[in-house]
């Protein structure tokens, strides 16, 4: 599959870095006039997991966005805590649990998702999304948190 790399960014393993990953995703997809709300949510969940479970002092996480024919968006979030990978299947948390819904949401929004390992100690959690559906007037081009996409250098 021939893929166009539209973004590779190294971000700090902090909540601010996770928010930046989401904002960069919105900016990249909006610039290409592609729907971004679901992709932004998937990136937010994967980045939050990277900064929560994959954080290693002094090491950042990486976000990569690739677009292939279709168009299909491949989201990759990599960190260096290989031993803390997601479960093989996303399961709904127990009623009343304060966390554990992120991968359930990723599984619901993505066409498919998984984890790749290597080279050591790298772990990449990825998700693929079909962006071919037409954008309705009320969906896709507004930032769900009410902010304009951040400017960036390519």
Description:
The protein has helices at 15-31, 37-53, 102-109; strands at residues 3-11, 61-68, 72-79, 112-117, 123-130. The two termini are 23 Å apart. The protein has three helices and five strands. The protein has a five-stranded antiparallel sheet with strand order 1-2-3-5-4, covered by helices on one side. The radius of gyration is 15 Å and the shape is globular. Helix 1 (15-31) runs antiparallel to helix 2.
Which features characterize this protein?
27% helix, 3 helices, 5-stranded antiparallel β-sheet, alpha+beta, 154 residues, single chain
- Helix percent band: 25-40%
Low-confidence stretches: 135-154
Helix/strand order, N-terminal first: EHHEEHEE
Structural class by SSE content: alpha+beta
- Overall geometry comes to globular
Strand content: 25-35%
**Major sheet description:** 5 strands, antiparallel
Distance between the termini: 23 Å
If helices are DSSP runs of H or I spanning 4 or more residues, what is the number of helices?
3
Q: How many whole angstroms does the radius of gyration measure?
A: 15 Å
* Number of E-type strands: 5
Mean pLDDT: 79
Which helices and strands, and how do they pair?
Layout: E1 3-11, H1 15-31, H2 37-53, E2 61-68, E3 72-79, H3 102-109, E4 112-117, E5 123-130
Antiparallel strand pairs: 1-2, 2-3, 3-5, 4-5
Helix pairs in contact: 1-2, 2-3
Short description:
The protein is α+β, with helices and mostly antiparallel strands. 27% of the residues lie in helices and 25% in strands. It is built from three helices and five strands.
